[in-house]
């Protein structure tokens, strides 16, 4: 009996050693979380020069990497499309927003020529989950739970923060493909969407753990997109801080960016637009109003950071933080919609019998607040222009990378140019997944992006060029040279981004041959990537 027990023990020990050796040779696949902010400016985070307290994101940056030349597509829906598919947005059918404009590149929904990162990682054994704003074709029947996401708590297009929102679109939330009661038992009472998306993200992570699967979570915040709404106590923290005005605060941000190494001191800060008045030229009453608007925006960003802290604490408490790759970025630059005077409107909320019951305070769920062009330009310090445009202010985003098990560098900057089209190949690379040539019996376009893993190790990311087009605004970047155009009828401008990333010195007249070469490259891409044929003009509402 003793011999047989000893023999059994030896067998168990050998099996254990073999299992441990196999686990060491084949470590667990990394978990992946992609966090997308909405309308966040390049300089809004503390670690990118901003004054808004963002300690949780700053900590991720201190323990990971910050990219200084990472790009989006200048607008919400196209950026989400590029992130999800690894393609330029027109190739996947979302060259504008979600309205069908007739042309192949502008159908307003993900087409069947693309595959989503969730569909690819699901085939690699990942539990795939999404919370937050979808906005790539729900109105056309293209929904996340049918594009690879196994767990979902999503809104078709965002546009709200509180369960009782009356100041913008009526909220709609879908749980695993089913519309749910906004005030029902499935959601916490008095929820705030920035917290809700994270809370359910952690719930889905627990479901992945129960299934013994690695997870991919796409956490798509609607913050800090208009209508800007935040808890009153958050807004109160910032009231009065913005009476310095956009001119002075922009200078302070720029100085911090130089100190942090996020921008080159040789790049002159882009001047204020002629459409925006100097702060000193506004009356004290107007300044107070602008201070209130920016205070609400800052509260949205600050609360977004707190939700990231909740997520990180949840990962740490579950023993998952070490082997989880976190990528944080924004879908476009600061939002100028609302114009130079901004748009704070006290929405009139309907009473129980449909009668007006009066406005809610600014920043509440019964109000509309848009930051407007004046603050948006400051949010994009030091760059030129804003959301919608392919100048650096419209397409530049922070990118924070945190992955303790996969990054040897801590607190370093990365200057390699990158783009949202790189998120798909990076996830495929990290997960050891296979990107298919066809999906569900239909051919799929090859990825346009490149894996960022070389850049994580501070090596070059090899590519020919990066391209942009939105609403006729266009650009191409090859190396440090950028050709950019304002509108379809605009003249091409040429900039050396190494010397002048704020686009202050147009070299087009001095280098016509380089302009012709880059323009020809953009034209060839525009035809290949379904940028052309251009869509029909939108019908004006009567």
The coarse silhouette is: globular
- Roughly how many Å is the radius of gyration? 24 Å
Average pLDDT works out at 91
Distance separating the two termini: 92 Å
Structural class call reads alpha/beta
Largest beta-sheet details: 11 strands, mixed
Number of helices: 13
What is the beta-strand fraction? 15-25%
Into which percent range does the helicity of residues fall? Answer: 25-40%
Query: How many strands appear in the DSSP assignment?
Result: 21
Q: Oligomeric state of the chains? A: single chain
Walk me through what this model shows.
This protein has 542 residues and is of the alpha/beta class. Helix content is 30%, strand content 17%. The chain contains 13 helices and 21 strands.
List the topology elements.
Blueprint: H1 2-25, E1 31-37, H2 55-63, E2 65-71, H3 76-85, H4 117-122, E3 127-133, E4 151-155, E5 174-175, E6 178-179, H5 193-210, E7 215-220, H6 232-236, H7 245-260, H8 284-317, E8 324-330, E9 343-345, E10 348-350, E11 356-359, E12 368-370, H9 372-379, H10 392-395, E13 396-402, E14 412-414, E15 418-419, H11 423-431, E16 438-439, E17 442-443, H12 453-456, E18 466-470, E19 473-478, E20 481-485, E21 493-496, H13 512-528
Parallel strand pairs: 1-7, 1-8, 2-14, 2-15, 3-4, 3-7
Antiparallel strand pairs: 2-13, 4-5, 5-6, 8-13, 9-12, 10-11, 16-17, 18-19, 19-20, 20-21
Helix pairs in contact: 5-8, 7-9
